[in-house]
Amino acid sequence: MSGLFFPIRRPSAGFAARRSGLPLLLVVALALLGGCKKPAGPPALGAPEVTVMTVAARDTPVDMEFTAQTQSSREVEIRARVDGFLDRRTYSEGEQVKAGQTLFQMDPKPFQALLQTAKGQLAQQQARLLVTQQNLARVKPLAAQQALSQKDLDDAIGNEKQAQAAVIAAQGQVETADLNLSYTTIRSPLNGLASYARQQDGSYLIANSSGLLTYVYQLDPMWVNFSVSQNEMLRYQDQIAAGKLIFPPNSEFVVAVELADGTEFPQHGKISFANPAFSTDTGTFLVRAVLANPKGTLRPGQFVRARISGAMRPNAILVPQRAVLQGARSHFVWVVDGESKAHQRVVEVGEWNGDNWFINDGLKAGERVVVDGAIRVAPDVPLKIVGTLASTDTGGKTVVEKGGASDTQASAPTQPAAPGAPGGASQ
């Protein structure tokens, strides 16, 4: 065991060199890291680019919109007026019918028999009247000669008058039977659209209960009904009293109708009726407009939008909706001062008018407000004004001046009025 030993190998020169070089590399790396500069922060942002407009007060027409429903100006129930069997329907359901056109035919034979009986009874009474008249003619000269008593003369006169009354009654029976016979042919009383038949051929009709056969709707003109709530009515009255709203003379509003697909009905109408009392069920005030409907485009029961034009807001201030921002508790705009710095201004907004908003309080004519780019504005920060909204016309277009040139921009589509606005839907 003592003779055994393990040889100790010395490290090679290359290995030693590599070990000696490691600290040097670490030193160099640390020196490089220490010499690196910290990255620079974000570059300073420039002034926000905004578009502004100068506030102006002008008389502005306003429209009020309501959810409305069409109604036939004459909706007639077609009913059986006598009891009997229905023979046949003589019109096409859902089609236009003319006044006097036959719609249904009842079995006329029982009524023809009754008419014949009434005519026979009339003939009997007429014959009896003839006999009494001849008898009276003979009695009168004899009574004058006192050949007959006064009682005989009185009896003859009474019989003749009774016979006359019986003839009149019989004539009434004939007219009644003839009228009932005419009722078996059921005709339309007007030009209009006929609904479906409620009774089938062969049904027995009872005039007082099962006599409803169909409806006929007159399409021209057409009524358009809408409702105004109590709150809306009171708000209009307050605004009129304060001089903030003017209605046309004699309430001569112009009524336009927008169909369900967004198209406008070509005919305009006027308000023809306003219910003098509020509904106790809905608390609303019924208003009716009448429109010409020569082609029958409008049908009864359609839901439409009624736009009422003719009111005016004097000296109204309008700003685009995109210029008004919503704060934690109120609406506000950015007002630009003479140094092109923005200041937040709380405003009281009113109703929407197209893509603009009425400002009831908070702005004055001549002040400038930020329209585009308001989301990037901060208080008391200089602004870079790249465009000026010169005017807003009633057509909903804005003219923006940029670098001395004018560009016409189409505004956004008309939006529904804010809750509580006159243009809001009333149910």
TrEMBL record:
Skewed-composition ranges (Low complexity): 408-420
Residue ranges of domain Multidrug resistance protein MdtA-like beta-barrel in the record: 221-309
Signal peptide (UniProt feature, chain positions): none
Entry GO CC: plasma membrane
Residue ranges, annotated region (Disordered): 394-427
Primary residence: other
Residue intervals of the Multidrug resistance protein MdtA-like C-terminal permuted SH3 domain: 315-374
Example GO BP: response to antibiotic
Compartments where located: Cell envelope
An example molecular function term from Gene Ontology annotations: transmembrane transporter activity
Domain Multidrug resistance protein MdtA-like barrel-sandwich hybrid: 74-209
The Multidrug resistance protein MdtA-like alpha-helical hairpin domain, residue ranges: 115-184
Alphabetized Pfam families for the sequence: Beta-barrel_RND, BSH_RND, HH_MFP_RND, RND-MFP_C
PANTHER family: ACRA/E-RELATED COMPONENT OF DRUG EFFLUX TRANSPORTER
Family that this chain belongs to: Belongs to the membrane fusion protein (MFP) (TC 8.A.1) family.
Protein name, per record: Membrane fusion protein, multidrug efflux system
Organism name: Paraburkholderia steynii
